[in-house]
Amino acid sequence: MNRSSSSSEIAGHVADRLHLANPWEVFAERIRRYEIHFNGREIELTRGPLALDGYGIRLFFGTDGHTKHGFQASTDLSDAGVKAVVEDAEKLSRHSEFPAKRVALPSAPPAERGELEIVDRRLWDRPMESLRDHVERLLAAFDGKRHAAPSFGSVRATLTEASVANSAGLRFSYPHTTVDFELAVKAFGGPEGRPPGEYWVNEANRRLETSRVVGEVDRWCRFAEDVRRAVPPPTGDIPVVLPSSMVTTILPIVIGSRFSGLARLRGIAPAAGTRLGVEKLTIRDDGRHPWGISSSPIDDEGVGHGARTLIDHGIAKELLYNVLEAGAFEEAPTGNGIRGTSFGYRDWKRFLTPPVAGATTVVIEPGDGGSDDEVIEAAGDGIWVQALGWAVPDPISSAFGGEIRIGYRIRNGKLAEPVRGGTMGGTVLGPEGSPSMLSSVAEIGSRAVLSDNLSSPTLLIRNLTVAGA
Amino acid sequence: MSDLRSSEADLKRALTRIESRTPFAEVMAEQKVGEGISTEANSTTSTIEPRLRGAVFRAWGGVRWVEVATSSLDAASLGLAIGSIENDLSRASGGSAPPGESSTTVGEWTTDTAQPMQSLGAEEMVKLGREVRAWATSVPGIKDARVAIAWEDDERLYLNTTGARCYQNLKLVRGSVAPIAIENGKVEFDYLSEGGLGGRERLGFLTEEKVTEVARDAKALLHAKAPPTGTMNVLLDPGVAGLFAHESFGHGTEADQFVRDRSYLKPLLGQMVGPEYLTLVDNGAHPTGWGSIYYDDEGHAAQRTELIKDGRFVGALHDRETAAILHARATGNTRRADFLSRPFVRMTNTYVEPQDWSYEELVAEAKDGVILEHGTSGIEDPQGGQMQFKVKKGHRIEHGQVTDLVSSMALSGGVLEFLKSIRGIGDPKGFEISPGYCGKGHTDLLTSGTGGAYLLSRAIVGPA
């Protein structure tokens, strides 16, 4: 199911209408999206299919050590529509240039490396039925709960056939599914006068994972209930334990930005050999991570995905390049040409934007810190952060921080009372020898959990700044 | 692409086809045209808005809404979409009438500007972008600067089965510059950004004086002190006051949160929540606001809605459904991010009305604390009534004087406590509506203006 060279694919259809002397590429998508939105336990809106067939064409013109390039996207598949897009791209190329000395487009699909797990087959075959079943089972999991209920939520499934074609002869397509899940769980009831509490779940996955989601409901209800009795955290530079679901809100945006060819052009990429983190910290980028939200056989420029070691035992090693950035440094593209990223999230309409270099699935290698309980024990005295308002990492300065929506005080190596409010923040990367999140990693748990575009064990950060009451 | 109105007959025919199957149906068709440039790191990128147009149909199925969208407006594609919605209607059929009042508004609005951005052209935009970048990088220590200039015409046509027909063409312009300073491995930046409805005049803020000033500010941030930590007096600059208005109060007044019983504000309607000189509004009809619209996506005209008036919480933002449930009127705040996104109750331009304190008086009143400047983000907490927003930088206030520059900060705390602690609101001199994007949760981003005047209160501050 991963590959096809059928000319019925959109990229092939468009490519057959291009008669250009200069290098070009087409990235296309045939998208069908289905959504169910619920309010309390009632379905308030069903949507779908939201049908979107579109493509983007990029043209390249080499000039004197620079590359002129132009990109335009459209949903008009007619001959006249394709012609208009080419004219737009040509016009844009007059004013767009990048210091790439050459553009090496991939000419062949990647070597067969086995089936990549990126399609929820039941969802693909019966989208709305699968969504209804998922929502019904999710809502049923709240049966019998007297002090917690779903407040609102949505499940949005996107079924996409992505295809790439280029002037070097590549024709490749693959299907993939994504599921965006949002749920607000509300806790209420006595004691009188205590306001309700809420725990807000936001996840992006490749599949519905109904059993896992249903299995999480009890835990989510507990978090919502704990919000109601939480107290402000302490103030100071203290040990902070971050589960994978928290690390994913901080790390991938910074890593994807600062380890890119564009960052190297800006002069803000880490030089190979620089110490950025503790010895036990190794971070990879893996474009084929099973069920990774950004995993696919090829990137959005047609380059085969692989794995890159970005930080090896604390030392900066490799960078991520798309085709243009690779051409600026006489490097090979690394399969990190990514389309449709904004505010750290991956859009489902990727064909509308040209690629930038970015991370796929950021993988933090498991360490010897053991279970979550053992990591907590190692913290001694500190806090476990379960949810931040929004970490909003700054991809340039790498500063991050946000309000603690729910967490737990750690006392004597055990989880204690819930905490909420105040802020927690720091800097992911700092100059060599200065404090940063990566240089303050004290323990790395032994079991990695996939959360959106990060696979990470639970981390103990020796010092992060917490501003409490 | 041709004017959206050229597809009006086909859209009407499609609506007519399902009219007998539903008590109410509507369609919103959309297309955008526009251009943009960005320049940085010796590279320049020029863009044109994608050739994307489409329509979303919504029909009342007796117990819930059903929606179908298509990215092609030819008769065959519209027919397929209508076929899908007919299937959904047969599955969702029930007996009740659609909630609320269906619009019967008829009108057309296009942003009026004497200097349309189209007349600037890509070449001139690139030239201006490179000139701005050169001003920024002329400041010693500035390694690079990212300059972005863009305009878009967002054209929407709304039709429904009760006779409404609303056509609008919003002309939006935005420019920004973010100088990047690097020293000994430390990286910092600052930014200057403005945008709104209009034409070339919106870019008048990109002057050499302002750009070099923000570049110097970026460099200074390399040596900024760490922000103070804890509960203290906070003076928000006009943009940050707007972030407060939007994230902390505005989201809590979106009445779908009332209906879900998810707003901490719901039981406070009609009560005093702040000082008598506090007025906070959402104004979709602002003539130049970044979040302005002429009609919402249910066919209601945009309007100015007072949320807090003279310290009293007096209003909320409604779509047809929440208005029906809560015995109010729709306020022109039903918005879709685009034709592929669902409608929600959303803000437009949300701001704190200026009062009469001068900046110097507010600093003196604060005595000790911190000024929060250049907001970067925020997030709502309508259930819990907490707030979080972040700023790029600030200054300490010590003994009634502005002192050290401090680096990025996050502010948090309870919104009601923050409102009650307000001790002064600045004069109109610094009033501005800043351009931004707002999500409902983490998705469905759309244009949103935030603004205000300097605002003095008390909250928790920490590094971010």
Question: What order do the helices and strands come in, and which of them pair?
Answer:
The complex is a heterodimer of chains A (469) and B (464).
Chain A: H1 10-15, E1 24-39, E2 42-63, E3 66-74, H2 79-93, E4 97-98, H3 121-125, H4 127-140, E5 148-166, E6 171-187, E7 197-205, H5 210-229, E8 236-242, H6 244-247, H7 251-258, H8 261-266, E9 283-286, E10 307-312, E11 315-316, H9 323-328, E12 337-338, E13 341-342, E14 345-346, E15 356-357, E16 362-364, H10 372-379, E17 382-388, E18 399-411, E19 414-419, E20 423-427, E21 441-444, E22 449-451, E23 454-456, E24 459-467
Parallel strand pairs in A: 8-17, 16-23
Antiparallel strand pairs in A: 1-2, 1-5, 2-3, 3-4, 5-6, 6-7, 8-24, 9-10, 9-16, 10-11, 12-15, 13-14, 17-18, 18-19, 18-20, 20-24, 21-24, 22-23
Chain B: H1 8-19, E1 25-40, E2 43-48, E3 53-60, E4 65-70, H2 75-92, E5 106-110, H3 121-137, E6 142-160, E7 165-183, E8 186-189, E9 192-197, H4 208-221, E10 230-236, H5 238-250, H6 255-259, E11 280-283, E12 304-309, E13 312-313, H7 320-325, E14 334-335, E15 344-345, E16 349-352, H8 359-366, E17 369-379, E18 386-398, E19 401-406, E20 409-414, H9 415-420, E21 424-425, E22 432-440, E23 443-452, E24 455-463
Helix pairs in contact in B: 1-2, 3-4
Written overview of the protein:
The complex is a heterodimer of chains A (469) and B (464). By secondary structure, chain A is an alpha+beta fold. Chain A has 2 domains: 10-229, PmbA/TldD fold, CATH 3.30.2290; 236-467, no CATH class. Chain A is 20% helix and 37% strand. Chain A has 10 helices and 24 strands. Chain A starts with 9 loop residues before the first helix and ends with a strand. Mean pLDDT of chain A is 93; it is low at 1-7. Chain B has 464 residues and is an alpha+beta fold. Chain B folds into 2 domains: 4-221, PmbA/TldD superfamily (PmbA/TldD fold); 230-463, no CATH class. In chain B, strands 1, 2, 3, 4, 5, 6, 7, 8 and 9 form a 9-stranded mixed sheet that branches. A 6-stranded mixed sheet of chain B has the order 13-12-11-16-23-22. A 5-stranded mixed beta barrel of chain B has the order 10-17-18-20-24. In chain B, strand 1 and strand 2 form a beta hairpin. In chain B, helix 3 (121-137) packs across helix 4. Chain B starts with 7 loop residues before the first helix and ends with a strand. The mean pLDDT of chain B is 93. Chains A and B meet through strand 1, strand 2, strand 3, helix 2 and strand 4 of A and strand 2, strand 3, strand 4, helix 2 and helix 3 of B.
